[in-house]
Design a protein that fits this description.
This is ATP-binding cassette, subfamily B. This protein has helices at 17-26, 32-64, 69-118, 121-126, 129-171, 173-220, 222-227, 231-257, 259-283, 289-330, 389-396, 419-425, 440-444, 456-465, 469-472, 492-505, 522-533, 571-580, and strands at 350-360, 363-373, 378-382, 404-409, 412-413, 426-429, 438-439, 482-483, 510-514, 540-544, 556-561, 564-569. The chain has 585 residues and is of the alpha/beta class. The protein has 2 domains: 15-330, ABC transporter transmembrane region fold; 350-580, 3-Layer(aba) Sandwich (Rossmann fold). Bound molecules: adenosine-5'-triphosphate (ATP).
Length: 585
């Protein structure tokens, strides 16, 4: 599966705006009550707004022209009451929708974050963290802004327009038809430019994601940048990303505002038509001044919301473009599905059967691999850089699935285990261990529910029983040693020790160490060797190492080169192969 969100094919389905909107609305389905109340308020407000001109027209014709000022005062008081009700209900509606928007934002961010947690390693290889952060933070906020600030105005404007349009046609059909003529032009124009507006906004959001990715990359690599004095290089890259964002923002701004002047012009034209045609009708005795005043108000009530819609339409298009980016993530599926229980077909703890693997289609990294690992034995994977050791280990831990062939764990297809079952059986100490902010204890217990509620004293007992005591002693404050964000207060070797303790305490059946001792001094390395030796006799070890002394106790050595895994026999032979880069079948 192509997980690259910035390549068209990662979008699972091309959807119409209607379908996209329908899916988005589903997210706030539990807000039905609030939405109904808000909609009721809109209807009430629009009704009051539409009743106003009728009352004003009636007041002019019935009381102003006949100079009955008491009637004028009475109707003015009614109008004032109506405006006050509209003010209060408008406030209530803003409050309701603000809450709906924030809850939607909360749900949406949770949904994306949970989806990100479900996705496989391949997804994170293909996408930059900065772009993903921008989708989680900024795109969701754009959707929230539309829902909390614009949606009800949007609906209110449409309701008022429809109501005003009906009044215009009812009062005088001919005049109404002429008045509404420019609106038809506006509709056609809007329908024509909308896809373009959405594209401009999508390009802008993409550039915001790109800029965020640049910032993230330079911030997380700042030491290399400073050490290599490459600040100018990153400044230039950021400047390019910023310029791109500037260009696309101008494009989006223009697109978002293009409707405004057109709406303004056509709305003024409509009012001019009403005035000219209305005066003509009055001169013919078919219309009254009061009716013309009402009529003009309705025309304004029709075209003003239309102008407002032009602004709201832009916010709608931004929200839709944001939703496309967000739903792209939500519609992705993990391409490492769990198979239904399969039959046991191997007696080994782990077996690679005719395994082929490619990260990218057409570029095979592992070719036709066959080997098996037995319970309680220690295996070493050696070979030149880029030969495929980490890839082989990643397939053992099912970070990826074989493109062809099968990996069997305890005799069954590795794909038939749940993530929980598999991660319980297999421990993987990565080349670059990652630690979370917190304490050494938090990091050691990460992913280990068994000791989660243990006190420090109890945990220290467990650590002692696992022979890890000497490793913990390396940390000044023991279990309570702080690991700060980015874990810069801890050396790389110390990080590897924490990752080591984390993996050993989980007591897996198969433990993979990928260059796990590369940054550890020889004495501590010997200590780790002892700890590994004292692991349960049933634990199988897979050690990837460049330093050959690390693997001298291995029961079997595999030489991994050019995507092939070959039994290397003795350590001397393996060394010979490594030195000569010789390939042997
Ligand atoms: N995420 C990835 N996407 C595409 N290609 C990859 C990816 N990771 C590794 N490769 C490629 O796969 C090949 C094998 O890489 P791998 O990391 O398995 O080698 P290795 O033997 O572990 O190297 P080292 O000793 O340097 O850790 C290399 O050609 C590498 O470029």
């Amino acid at each position: 599966m192509n997980y690259n969100l910035n390549q068209g094919s990662a979008t699972q389905e091309k959807r119409s705006t209607y379908q996209a909107l329908k899916k988005l609305i589903q997210l706030i389905s539990n807000e039905r009550r609030n939405l109904w109340i808000a909609s009721g308020i809109i209807l009430l407000n629009s009704g009051l707004l539409l009743l106003g001109p009728l009352l004003i027209g009636h007041t002019i014709d019935a009381y102003v022209r006949t100079k009955q000022y008491q009637g004028v005062l009475q109707f003015s008081a009614i109008l004032l009451g109506m405006y006050l009700i509209a003010f209060c209900t408008g406030y209530l509606q803003t409050k309701l929708m603000g809450g709906v928007g924030q809850r939607m934002l909360y749900t949406l961010r949770n949904a994306i974050f949970n989806k990100l947690q479900e996705l496989p390693v391949a997804f994170f290889n293909e996408n930059k963290a900065g772009d993903l952060i921008s989708r989680v933070n900024s795109d969701t906020d754009k959707i929230n802004q539309f829902f909390s600030q614009s949606l009800m105005q949007f609906i209110g404007s449409i309701v008022t327009m429809i109501g005003a349009g009906i009044f215009l046609l009812l009062i005088n059909f001919e005049l109404g038809a002429v008045t509404l003529g420019p609106a038809v032009l506006i509709l056609i124009f809007t329908a024509l430019v909308s896809p373009w507006v959405k594209r401009r906004n999508a390009a802008n959001l993409k550039s915001v994601g790109g800029m965020s990715a640049e910032i993230q990359e330079s911030l997380s690599n700042f030491k290399v940048i400073i050490a290599f004095n490459r600040r100018d290089y990153f400044r230039k890259r950021f400047d390019e990303a910023n310029q791109n964002n500037y260009r696309t923002a101008i494009g989006a701004g223009l697109a978002n505002n293009i409707l405004m002047p057109v709406y303004g012009l056509l709305s003024s034209m409509a009012q001019l038509i009403v005035l000219l045609f209305g005066i003509y009708l009055i001169s013919q005795g078919e219309f009254t001044i009061g009716l013309l005043v009402s009529y003009l108000s309705y025309a304004i009530n029709f075209y003003n919301p239309l102008k407002q819609l032009a602004a709201l339409w832009a916010s709608f298009q931004v929200a839709m473009a944001s939703w496309d980016r967000v739903s792209q993530i939500l519609s992705l599926e993990n391409d490492l599905p769990q198979l239904k229980d399969t039959v046991e077909t191997s007696t080994s703890l782990l077996e690679f059967r005719n395994v082929h693997f490619s990260y990218t289609e057409g570029q095979e990294i592992l070719h036709h691999i066959n080997f098996s690992l037995e319970k309680g034995k220690t295996y070493a994977l050696i070979g030149p850089t880029g030969g495929g050791k980490t890839t082989t280990a990643s397939l053992i831990a099912r970070l990826y699935d074989a493109t062809e062939g099968t990996v069997l764990l305890s005799g069954k297809d590795i794909r038939s285990y749940t993530d929980e079952e598999r991660s319980k059986k297999i421990g993987f100490i990565l080349q670059e261990p990652f630690l979370f902010s917190g304490t050494v204890k938090d990091n050691i217990l990460y992913g280990n529910p068994k000791y989660q509620d243990y006190s420090n004293a109890q945990l220290e007992e467990v650590i002692k029983a696992a022979n890890l005591e000497a490793l913990l002693a390396i940390f000044d404050e023991g279990l309570e040693t702080l690991v700060t964000s980015g874990s810069d207060n801890i050396s790389l070797g110390q990080k590897q020790l924490i990752a080591f303790m984390r993996a050993v305490l989980r007591n897996p059946e198969l433990l993979i160490l990928d260059e796990a001792t590369a940054n550890i001094d020889t004495i501590t390395e010997q200590l780790l060797g002892m700890i590994l030796k004292n692991l349960s006799k049933d634990t199988t070890l897979v050690i990837i190492a460049h330093r050959l002394n690390t693997i001298e106790n291995a029961d079997e050595i595999f030489f991994v080169n050019s995507g092939e895994v070959i039994r290397a026999g003795t350590l001397d032979h393996a060394m010979d192969m490594l030195l000569k880069g010789k390939r042997k079948s």
